[in-house]
Amino acid sequence: MLNIFFLQDTTALLTGIQEYRRDYNQRQTLHENLLRKSFAYDHEWTTIFSRNHHGVNNASWSLYRRGYSDNGYYFIGLEALYLKTTYESAQELMIILKDWDGKTRYAKYEHFQIGDEDEQYAIRKLGAYVGNAGDALRPHLFKKFSTFDRDNDGNDKLHCASMYGGGWWFFGNCTTSMLTGPYHYEENAHSYGISWSTWKGWNYSMKSVEMLIRPTL
């Protein structure tokens, strides 16, 4: 009898776990669909950067300036981004991150603007944050863009772009977020790469990321 009760309890437990996992997956799928419908796939949003695969890595200043598209890696270009955020209407920024467990988080900023090449494409404006990924971009406000062949991080002892393997708006201690680093697959996800420290910490590289802008509503 004890064995029968044990088997019944075990079966009930396993059934409960399966139902929980199914419900969790359904909720996660619903959350992602709502997020995409609300933000990423709204026709007014323009993708300025996306990563979901290997592509150009540690690009030069000139390549970041003009933009590129290669094997799951797209960037509109710093000059185009400067023109859109300066001479078109005020722009808001959305960053959508996806980890290797299929979870999605976002960070949204009410106003985003970068300077011109004379200003080294520094982030001029970064408005109020809303989201569930954490405000990992805030420390990069007013920081200049750096690449392996143009060091603007303000630290004579470090070369952040070379160390982290990509161009970004680095500062003296380098970064609290970086979306342009080397792409790592799941087995090597705990490495510097596509990082957003306020969600997954320093040593975690995302499966995919997308940055979008649209005119402020």
UniProtKB/TrEMBL annotation:
Protein name, as recorded: Fibrinogen C-terminal domain-containing protein
Gene Ontology annotations for the cellular component aspect, listed alphabetically: extracellular space
Domain of life per record: Eukaryota
Pfam family, one: Fibrinogen_C
InterPro entries attached to this UniProt entry: Fibrinogen-like_C, Fibrinogen_a/b/g_C_1, Fibrinogen_a/b/g_C_dom, Fibrinogen_C-term_domain
PROSITE patterns: FIBRINOGEN_C_2
Entry-linked PANTHER family: FI21813P1-RELATED (PTHR19143:SF327), FIBRINOGEN/TENASCIN/ANGIOPOEITIN (PTHR19143)
Domain Fibrinogen C-terminal residue range list: 60-217
This protein's encoding gene: 106093328
Species this protein is from: Stomoxys calcitrans (Stable fly)
Database matches in Gene3D superfamilies: Gamma Fibrinogen, chain A, domain 1
